[in-house]
Amino acid sequence: MRTYDQYCSIARALDVIGDRWTLLIVRELLIRGPSRYTDLQYGLPSIATNLLADRLRELEFHGVIAR
Questions:
Q1: Torsion region of 18: left, alpha or beta (phi above 0 gives left; psi -120 to 50 gives alpha)
Q2: Which of 21, 32, 37, 63 has the fewest Cβ atoms surrounding its Cβ within 10 A?
Q3: What span, in angstroms and rounded, lies between the C-alpha atoms of 25 and 7?
């Protein structure tokens, strides 16, 4: 994962949500509310399943989403 490695709130936020697909996953969760994995796959048909799983794990690790 690429990092800006700076002590700045904007740079830190981009470290978490700045990866490809991450903002689209957050958008889907904001639109749909609590969702199942398959609901997210349906909303983002082009995303690879392993990439979706990785991004969800990262978001959960950083406290952006909860399981």
A1: alpha
A2: 63
A3: 26
Rounded to whole angstroms, how far apart are CA atoms 8 and 52? 27
Token pair 């909303």 in the structure block, residue: 43
Q: How far is the C-alpha of 17 from the C-alpha of 55, rounded, in Å?
A: 9
Tokens representing 39 are 């609901």
Residue type, 49: T
pLDDT digits (tens, 9 = 90+) for 28-52: 999 999 999 999 999 999 999 999 9
Specify the pTM: 0.84
